[in-house]
């Protein structure tokens, strides 16, 4: 499953192809959306926002295309007019003079006004996105200490998109290793210094992974600068304490950690 950094990079690719260019052709498969297509021609995409696994394509006229890819949806960038050979079902086509972006297979798609966007059930449930550069360490710390989250075990909390969007399993284990914390702990047990370290890691590690373009391939989970310290490294030596990295299961997902220095 892609995590926030991979989803943000996919959104960057779409933005590069289409952002700021007048749309020359807009097409929607879903009958409830076809009525919007003509009105969007001539507008442009201002930006593509990510909220966890949801993509928000903001048009210059004020409407937003909401799409959530679940397991199957996939976006493609193609040359204008090109229709790739694929067995996937096309759902959305947004085309400018030179490029088009195509959404295949996703079924959770809507066009929303700003008011509808603010009330959208998924977006109301999901927390702030770790790759939203406006989100600060202080805000994350306050969220950790809020009554809703302060007693939640980190192993589950860090996978809960209602806490922070964009974290997944590899980020969960790397953030906890970096913070020197065991998965069973919770925020209410931490010192102020530990909270600062954790809040910082919750933003710094996803952002480093994003910026250094960590490889998504399951067999090569590290990029040039972002190297996994524990993920997929059971049996290796911990570079901080020399202990042996272990693999277990926590909150129903594989969990990697160093019992020597994560307390
Ligand atoms: Zn260690």
UniProtKB/TrEMBL annotation:
Q: Which cofactor does it need?
A: Zn(2+)
Active-site residues? 2-3, 53, 253
Q: Which SUPFAM superfamilies match?
A: Glucocorticoid receptor-like (DNA-binding domain), N-terminal domain of MutM-like DNA repair proteins, S13-like H2TH domain
List the Gene Ontology MF annotations in alphabetical order.
Answer: class I DNA-(apurinic or apyrimidinic site) endonuclease activity
Q: Which residues bind DNA?
A: 70, 125, 169
Q: Which reaction does it catalyse?
A: 2'-deoxyribonucleotide-(2'-deoxyribose 5'-phosphate)-2'-deoxyribonucleotide-DNA = a 3'-end 2'-deoxyribonucleotide-(2,3-dehydro-2,3-deoxyribose 5'-phosphate)-DNA + a 5'-end 5'-phospho-2'-deoxyribonucleoside-DNA + H(+)
> Pfam families per the record?
Fapy_DNA_glyco (PF01149), H2TH (PF06831)
Keyword annotations of the record: DNA damage, DNA repair, DNA-binding, Endonuclease, Glycosidase, Hydrolase, Lyase, Metal-binding, Multifunctional enzyme, Nuclease, Zinc, Zinc-finger
Q: Any idea where the Formamidopyrimidine-DNA glycosylase catalytic domain is? A: 2-104
Q: Tell me which EC number(s) this protein carries.
A: 3.2.2.-, 4.2.99.18
Among InterPro entries, the record links this protein to:
DNA_glyclase_Znf_dom_DNA_BS, Endonuclease-VIII, FPG_cat, FPG_N, H2TH_FPG, Ribosomal_uS13-like_H2TH, Znf_DNA_glyclase/AP_lyase
Residues covered by the FPG-type domain: 229-263
Cofactor info, note text: Binds 1 zinc ion per subunit.
Give the protein's biological function: Involved in base excision repair of DNA damaged by oxidation or by mutagenic agents. Acts as DNA glycosylase that recognizes and removes damaged bases. Has a preference for oxidized pyrimidines, such as thymine glycol, 5,6-dihydrouracil and 5,6-dihydrothymine. Has AP (apurinic/apyrimidinic) lyase activity and introduces nicks in the DNA strand. Cleaves the DNA backbone by beta-delta elimination to generate a single-strand break at the site of the removed base with both 3'- and 5'-phosphates.
User: Which protein family is it in?
Assistant: Belongs to the FPG family.
Q: What is this protein called?
A: Endonuclease 8
């Amino acid at each position: 499953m892609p995590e926030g950094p991979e989803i943000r990079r996919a959104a960057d690719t779409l933005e590069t192809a289409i952002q700021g260019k007048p749309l020359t052709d807009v097409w929607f498969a879903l009958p409830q959306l076809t009525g919007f297509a003509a009105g969007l021609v001539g507008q442009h995409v201002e930006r593509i926002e990510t909220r966890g696994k949801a993509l928000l394509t903001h048009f210059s006229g004020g409407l937003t295309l909401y799409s959530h890819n679940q397991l199957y949806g996939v976006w493609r960038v193609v040359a204008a007019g090109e229709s790739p050979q694929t067995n996937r079902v096309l759902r959305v086509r947004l085309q400018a003079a030179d490029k088009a972006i195509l959404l295949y297979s996703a079924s959770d798609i809507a066009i929303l006004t700003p008011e509808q966007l603010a009330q959208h059930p998924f977006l109301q449930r999901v927390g702030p996105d770790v790759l939203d550069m406006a989100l600060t360490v202080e805000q994350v710390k306050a969220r950790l200490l809020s009554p809703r989250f302060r007693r939640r075990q980190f192993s589950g909390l860090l996978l809960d998109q209602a806490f922070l969007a964009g974290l997944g399993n590899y980020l969960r284990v790397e953030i906890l290793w970096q913070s020197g914390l065991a998965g069973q702990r919770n925020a209410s047990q931490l010192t102020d210094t530990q909270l600062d370290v954790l809040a910082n890691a919750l933003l710094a590690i996803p952002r480093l992974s994003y910026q250094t373009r960590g490889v998504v391939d399951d067999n090569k989970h590290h990029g040039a600068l972002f190297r996994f310290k524990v993920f997929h490294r059971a049996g290796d030596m911990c570079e901080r304490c020399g202990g042996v990295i272990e693999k277990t299961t926590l909150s129903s997902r594989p969990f990697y950690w160093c019992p020597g220095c994560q307390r």
